[in-house]
Amino acid sequence: MNKQFYDSIKSELFDNILPYWQKYSRDLVNTGFFGEIDNQNHQNDKIERSIVMTSRFLWTYSAVARFSKNKSFLEMAHFAYKVISEKYFDKQNGGVYWSVMPDGTPKVTKKQIYGEAFCCYGLSEYAAALKELETSVEFVQLSEKVMNEALEIYNLLETHALDKSQGGYIEACAVDWNKTDDMILSPKDMNCPKSMNTNLHVMEAYTNLYRTIPVVFSDAKPLQREIGDSLAKLVEVTVNKIVQKNAHLGMFFDMDWNLLSDEISFGHDIEASWLLWEAVCELGDEQLKSEIRDLVIKMADVTYEEGFDKDNGCLENFLKDGGKVLDRTRVWWNQAESVNGFYNAWEMTGEEKYASIVEKQWAWIQNHQVDKKGGDWWNALNVDGTPILQEAKGGNWKTSYHNGRTCLELLRRSSFKNL
Description:
Blueprint: H1 3-24, E1 26-27, E2 32-33, E3 36-37, E4 43-44, E5 49-50, H2 51-68, H3 74-88, E6 99-100, E7 106-108, E8 111-112, H4 113-133, H5 137-161, E9 172-173, E10 194-195, H6 196-216, H7 221-242, E11 252-253, E12 264-265, H8 266-283, H9 286-307, E13 308-309, E14 314-315, E15 318-320, E16 325-327, E17 330-331, H10 332-349, H11 352-369, E18 380-381, E19 394-395, H12 401-413
Antiparallel strand pairs: 1-2, 3-4, 3-19, 5-6, 6-7, 8-9, 10-11, 12-15, 13-14, 15-16, 17-18
Helix pairs in contact: 1-12, 2-3, 2-4, 2-12, 4-5, 4-6, 5-6, 6-7, 6-8, 7-8, 8-9, 8-10, 10-11, 10-12
């Protein structure tokens, strides 16, 4: 990778992605983020807003502020935290609501564990950013308050969502953290007790919590060990239950980890490969790293061989029905995670074939996925690279997170430290 490649990454993040969401995502009248932005950048101020979207904005701008050491990015993070604090926290039962209406009235009140995890993820990064970039007593105290809120969610998940018998985390609880039959994450998902997607993002959140808690608390070692134990167990579940013998992730499961679907999601496969490696690297367990290293590389290799369009340099969407149905939609987050996953494989091995994949994928993104006129990236493209305009530019699922994180990850890992 040369300096020109990283300059392109930097420009994409700081000149396109971050300014786009700063300009279009915020509803300043209702104090929140718009639940939908169309491809003409018109915002819908009527529909519900999710905790996932809001937490992703909180994480992105906190993480960029920490990386760049530029406090101006905290302005967006402060806004996101204010929204979460005022509208999403369930002050009676703990945790956060899945979604609220623009005026803050709770819409979907169940405790969807995927959403709880993203809130924990965002809060922990914000707490660290406050501690590192702000010096006043007020912000130091806020940093500790926010980290304690992240820890509260962690404790709620360990108490109510952790399957202490079979391992991993269930999909959802009722508003009061009791059992519910309404487990479904989205209309695209199955109403089942456990999923790869929820457990993947609990792992992501716990990795970040483990990494950031010593930034905020000087006496964090006992808490960090506890979080580390939870994270290590989830890594074990991921490797032994969620990753299948074919090196793809299973998608949906019953309580005993019996697979309920044959669907393969190439974006999740490649995303999980690098998030799994990130988790074990943060834990610093050399034996565990040695044990799963080959698996992580195999997951990347299988994704490339079975899910990568080698002619055009982009990632397919999903495969199902025994391999009979291949969805070739070029979805924005799949392309972003493809860059992350193959870059991670290149770093792990030094093999230039992975660098070549990354460069091809980035070229596709720059030539097709980026909306050069309207800003940010098209949500989804046809095989020929034309935008699918029915898919919203932004909203409850599409934010600054996947593509912003990809750029940030590569800049963090770059040898060109003075880009």
